[in-house]
Amino acid sequence: MAQHDWWQAGQPIVVAVSTGVDSMVLLALLEHLSQRRPQVIVAYVDHCLRHQSRQETIFLENYCRAHHLKLAKKSWQPKDHPRHGIEAAARHFRYQFFREVLKANQSTILLTAHHGDDLAETMLMKLVRGGQLDSLIGIDEVRQTSFGQLIRPLLTFSKNDLRQFASTNQLRWFEDETNQDLAIQRNRFRHQILPKLKAENPKMLDHFINYSQQLKSMITVNHELLAPIADKVVVSFTADQRLVADLSKLIGYSNQVQLNLIRYLLEHWLKIDNIGLNQLAQLQHLLANAQKPQGKLNFPNHWQVIKRYQQLIIEKKVDKPIIKSKIGSRFMVILDRWYSLSNGSKFGVFTSKVVADHYQVTPLILLEQQFPLSVRYWHPGDRLRLKNGGHQKVNRLMINAKLPSEQRLKTQLLVTDDGDILAVLGLKSAFLPTKQGKRVYLVEQRTQSTSERKGINNE
User: Fold this and answer.
1) 439 partner at 20 to 30 Å CA-CA among 26, 99, 209, 453?
2) Which domain range does residue 298 map to?
3) E strand map for 180-310
4) Count of H helices and E strands in the chain?
């Protein structure tokens, strides 16, 4: 307490107590603090999983009454127990209750009695299971949560230290018989593996704690160094929904920096958990593949990662209902009138020249029989006439313009009454041989930097 300055004297803190030796030692230590003794609120959950739990509840009620401690308790009724995943469900129930107790007592500190053996067991289990390197930290001594701070003040002590303290001070506690069940993985590590490691080196727990602290320090430094790079690379960001990064900037870094930066963005910006190494490798391969300017990968919990030319987009998929266009798939163009297109841009065909900023104006000379003009969506095989007498496929034009796949579906053409294509709206107009006829002006809102892109000028 003197080293870390976790709380002030009289400050309300919630202590998770199970009546096991670990939490009873923690409670006794708090009660006997000579300085900065907090206001202790004991939080206890009867999981109703063992016959002994009723006896434990009565014991803790009597203990808190005798020691003048406030007790908040709750039972997890058997009817609410799931058939599968009961450990995870019990933990969820327990921490939900802790949040309620913290809020009711205006506290922002929760203490649990995890110790050094718990840390070593967790690190070993993570190592055996595989996963990301930062999971090998095991258990943090202090962790920021949605409800405040979760503090584990006993993490540098061994289980044996706590038992010796309890025995010396004649503390009473209860043993959970399920802790001996070797069908549970943690119990196998606790009773079969850790004792052998301790026999090899009595300071084994100290080394695990040291490794955990080193890992946490390295990962913290890594995140601090990645943060300014992320700020340079990220173009736009909406929390829990969407992130857009500039690929031209991202690929300027080494593969290892790219990989770590993407993980950092996924986990710490978008809060996407459980990203496997295989998925990260697939993503890195997609980004490095210059022959594939567009691509998509599906990630857990409805997230998708999209490569779109010079953009990397990470967004949550939203099921949107299909809404039919109000104007249908084809409509007639009335002169001297503005129209809105499905891609959000505007255009019009006018009988007199329009001068306006941010608009592309293209003169057209047409015969009377070519009217009325109309707009339709492009079809495979559509071609645009070029100045040299040849034609360009509309599909190739969109590829050259680096138009994303979903925007290609919305691309519309201005055509004559006899079917000739006059323009791919927003991208490029056709070359029309000089002839006599009626002069009109195609005016388009500049949604694409068409004049700056190779192969899509009106040539």
Assistant:
1) 453
2) 225-316
3) 234-238, 242-246, 294-299, 303-308
4) 13, 22
